[in-house]
Specification:
Elements (H helix, E strand, L loop, with lengths): L2 E6 L3 H12 L4 E7 L2 H11 L3 E4 L8 H11 L4 E6 L4 H9 L4 E4 L4 H12 L4 E2 L1 H9 L1 H5 L16 H10 L5 H8 L3 H15 L4 H13 L3
Parallel strand pairs: 1-2, 1-3, 3-4, 4-5, 5-6
Length: 219
């Protein structure tokens, strides 16, 4: 079964180059190409790809807004950002849309291929050059002067809370997590509150970034 990809980039040469290379992979299928964020949203609805490879700086509608709309309207479609911007002012909003990951265009082709395959499996993907920076800059993200707890803090959580924590990395709502784990939405809300309390975190964004550190920092 092939991974169905929708590519979104307003630079024609970049788009064609990425399309050509990824199209050579035996397990990939390029199902569409969008030249702006609005087209990306429309094609995501029409084609229902597995992954949208999303540029950020595009006309008509930028990649941030397009990623947000796709994540909200089509939770089964994963958005993997592929951009030239490595600053936190782009990274943080992109991840907060529910995107599965954030890669820079300077990434090695083989690394991009593996990132797509891993994202397809539901794993958060961060470009090697920015992953440590993102994880260490939690306080600016959450407007709190605190750092992420150490990985060993995971030991304070119950097995079910760990399952909920993993779901948070996907940007899912309590309702969506409840559906994924086949539990009541109220139960998920209780687990989320317990996770934040045990880890001494303020919100879901902090919890999701802690989960990235624990589960995916090496992936």
């Amino acid at each position: 079964m092939k991974i169905r990809l929708l590519l979104a980039d307003d630079h024609q040469l970049v788009l064609k180059g990425i399309s050509f290379f990824l199209g050579l992979q035996p397990d990939f299928e390029i199902v569409g190409e969008a030249h702006n964020g609005k087209e990306a949203v429309e094609l995501a609805a029409e084609l229902q790809p597995d992954i949208v490879l999303m540029d950020l700086n595009m006309p008509v509608m930028d990649g941030i807004e397009a990623s947000r709309l796709i994540s909200e309207q089509h939770p089964n479609v994963k958005v993997l950002v592929l951009t030239s911007f490595s600053d936190r002012s782009h990274i943080v909003p992109a991840l907060q849309t529910g995107a599965i990951g954030y890669m820079l265009k300077e990434v090695e082709p083989d690394q991009l291929v593996e990132a797509i395959r891993s994202a397809y499996k539901g794993n958060i993907q961060l470009h090697p050059e920015i992953s440590n920076a993102i994880l260490s800059q939690l306080s600016p993200i959450a407007h709190e002067p605190k750092k992420l707890p150490g990985k060993e803090a995971i030991n304070s959580l119950t097995p079910r809370e760990i399952e909920v924590l993993e779901q948070l990395t996907k940007g899912l709502s309590n309702k969506e997590i409840a559906q994924a784990l086949v539990v009541a939405e109220k139960t998920v809300k209780t687990h989320v509150s317990s996770i934040l309390s045990k880890l001494n975190l303020s919100d879901r964004t902090q919890a999701a970034l802690f989960a990235v550190q624990v589960f995916h920092s090496n992936g």
